[in-house]
Structure formats: C-alpha cells, structure tokens
Write a structure and sequence with these properties.
Number of domains: 1
CATH superfamily: Porin
Structural class: mainly beta
Low-confidence stretches: 1-29, 96-100
CATH architecture: Beta Barrel
Mean pLDDT: 89
Distance between the termini: 21 Å
Order of helices and strands: HEEEEEEEEHHEEEEEEEEEEEEEEE
Shape: globular
Helix content: under 10%
Strand order of the largest sheet: 3-5-6-7-8-9-10-11-12-13-14-17-18-19-20-23
CATH topology: Porin
Number of strands: 23
CATH class: Mainly Beta
C-alpha cells in the first residue's frame, strides 16, 4: 500500500502554492498564474455495532475503530480558465484476488480537466463529480456521519468517467445551478468502456436566499452492456429525483425523494436485494424488471459556530415488483462539535431495520459495505451503532 500512496503523492506534487494573480497587460485584467494546491479529507469513527439477522448476531458486531474513507486531493490551475483535479480514494476491502485476507485499496475517484469559460458554463472531462448525490450532500451537510440515501443504497454514483457541463448564477438573490453528465455508467471504480453512454442531470433553483428546490434524473445501462451481451435481454435503468432544503437562523431542514427503475432486483428465494436488473446473465435467460423508491428527511440546528444537533430518517421500498415486502428503514441522531474549522466530531446513534429480506449497505464499517437482513423473504434484520464519528480536512 505504501508504494501506491507514494505514487499518488508523487503524481499530485510535492508541495502547495498559493493562488497567484498578476495584471495582464494585453487586456488590463488579471491572469491566474500556474499553481498547485494539495489537501485531503478523512472519515473515521470509534463505535459499537450490533448487527442481527433473525435475532442472531452476524458480522460486523462489536466495538472497533474504522477509517472509512481517506481522500488525497490535488488541484492545479493552469490559467484563469483551465484547471485540473486528482482525487484519490482510500478504502479497505475484505476480499482480494492475490493471497488471503483483506487489502487497503487506493482508487482514482476524480481525475479531470476543466475549462471554466463562464460562471454559467464549465466543461469537465475525465472522472468528475456526479450531478445528484454529491449535490444532496451539500444540502444535508453531514456526509461524514452517513452517505445520502441514494448513495448508500446503491442507486447513485458520486463520480463517473465521461463529460460534464455545469454552471451557476452568482450572488445572493434568486438563481439556479445545473450539472449535466454523459458517462460510462460504471462509476469511478470502473472506467471500462460500455456499449452505450449513460446520461445524468440536475437542475436546482434558489427562489430566495436559504431555499433550494432541485430535480434530477438518470438514464442508461450502468456500464453493464457491451458487445458480448448487447443481444441479451436488457432493461434501461431510470432514476428520478427531487430535493428540497431550507436554511434560516441556524436551522437546516430538507428532504430527498427518489424513484429508481431497473437498477437492481431481489432474489425471490433469499430476499437478498442487489441482483442486476439491467442485463440477463445469458442469451437464453431473461432479466426481471423492478422498481424502488424512497424518502429521506433531515434536520439540524447550530446553537453556535461550534455546537449543533442533527437527525435524519430514511424509508425505502427496495423491490416493489419482485419482493414487494422488502423494505429498509434507517435513522440517526447526534450532537456535533467543531473545535476548529477543519475538524468535526459527533456523538451519533444509528438504527436500521430491513424487513422481509436483506440488502447490502454501502457504509457501516471500514469495509464500506455490510449486509443487513434475513436469509429469506419472510425474515428480517436489525442494525444499531453508537459511537464517535469525525472528519478532518487539510
């Protein structure tokens, strides 16, 4: 692992430099000189987990320390228009193809060239931020405690390989922002070429200061269709999103709704959710159509710049067509302390229940995924966690 990290550091540069501008005699304005900045972000926790399937303890259960994510971020400004970003993503994986035991892996999460021609138009080429889930994170504000609902349930990528156009109005009055991507569809961990290009978009409106109304959507094959299976039975995955948020006098309240068709389906015997609903496994097989939907609501109140309380509740129907009883309910509550600008510490309690089956959640411990639920469509599971959660940036 140390060689991978050293390679990433070498690629991103050996130091950081402040932004430098100078008068441009050609037009009387200013021009940004080349510079590089390096930073990072880490999510970690010390907690006790109880995970039960039909009232029997299953892994992960117990007390431990997790480093769930570690990002190394390098930004380079070539000029006042052109810039580039490299963000590496560190996570632990319990499986490996080489040897036994788990490994800590370093991925490229973002690697893009940006041309910002106007506040309303920037072109991004490479692995870039996805339009929906990261935007909802900025409304919700507590990503370091838990992922957004669409992200943690596997209905949205946070970054993908392709092209993106984005922009926003400036100023404190009414305005809007948007993001439109054409991507491979497999997410940032899978840069391989697919048969078709997927499309994801978001438009957000700010009717007045503090309020946000956003809509979004996704359509494509999630990077799963190629020349070897293009003639198999195939579905197109669609997702529709709505988010509302309002901030005033230390309060922040918001909600997200999604409806996803043909992303995943469930096994009719085991009740396990997560089988692909995009393309059949063979030419003589069919793929089931399925639909999921969910709601997430959150609220927080900052007493001061340092202290706040927060809560969130999610409810999702994971397989309306194949295993209609399969549901996921999640909530957390907590209190946060910010001793310095770049450090957040929270005491958090989490609780989750999966009814009539099981699903794999894209968060929980250092392995970044865990299974909650029972072993058939008539059984269920519960998950609870209490501990200290934190993020720090540099």
């Amino acid at each position: 692992m140390s060689k991978k990290i050293l390679a990433a550091i070498t690629l991103t540069g050996l130091g950081a430099a402040p932004l430098v501008v100078h008068a441009d005699p050609a037009n009387g304005g200013t021009e940004v000189l080349p510079n590089t900045t390096i930073g990072g972000q880490v999510f970690l926790d010390l907690s006790n987990i109880s995970n039960q399937s039909n009232n029997v303890d299953v892994a992960p259960t117990g007390t431990g320390f997790d480093v769930k994510r570690g990002y190394l971020i390098a930004d380079h400004q070539f000029s006042n228009i052109w810039s580039a970003d490299l963000t590496t993503d560190l996570q632990y994986s319990s499986s490996t193809t080489a040897g036994s035991g788990g490994v800590t892996e370093v991925f490229i999460k973002k690697l893009y060239l940006q041309g910002k021609f106007d506040d309303l138009f920037a072109l991004n080429v490479g692995a870039y931020t996805s339009p929906w889930a990261p935007f909802v994170e900025t409304l919700y504000e507590y990503r370091w405690v838990e992922k957004t609902q669409t992200d943690r349930l596997g209905f949205a990528n946070t970054a993908d390989w392709g092209f993106n156009a984005s922009g926003a109005t400036v100023g404190s009055g009414p305005g809007f922002n948007y993001s439109l991507s054409a991507v491979n569809g497999g997410g940032y961990k899978n840069p391989s070429r697919s048969k078709y290009v997927d499309v994801e978009a978001r438009a957000a409106f700010i009717p007045f200061e503090g309020a946000t109304i956003a809509v979004g959507g996704y359509s494509g094959h999630l990077g799963q269709v190629n020349v070897s299976n293009e003639n198999f039975d195939t579905n197109t995955a669609h997702r529709y999103d709505v988010a509302l948020n309002y901030r005033i006098a230390g309060f922040n309240v918001g909600a997200e709704y999604f409806d996803a068709k043909n992303y995943k389906t469930a096994n009719t015997t085991t009740g396990l959710f997560g089988t692909s609903a995009v393309v059949a496994a063979a030419a003589n097989k069919t793929v089931a159509t399925d639909e999921a939907s969910g709601e997430s609501v959150w609220a927080s109140y900052a007493f001061t710049e340092q202290y706040s309380v927060f809560a969130r509740y999610d409810n999702a129907k994971l397989s309306k067509d194949v295993v209609p009883g399969l549901k996921d309910e999640y909530y957390h509550i907590g209190v946060a302390y910010k001793p310095i600008k770049n450090l957040d510490v929270g005491l958090v309690y989490k609780n989750e229940k999966v009814l009539d089956g099981a699903t794999t959640i894209g968060s929980g411990d250092a392995n970044s995924s865990l299974t909650i639920g029972g072993v058939s469509t008539t059984t269920s599971g519960t998950y609870s966690e209490v501990g200290i959660f934190t993020q720090w940036k540099f």
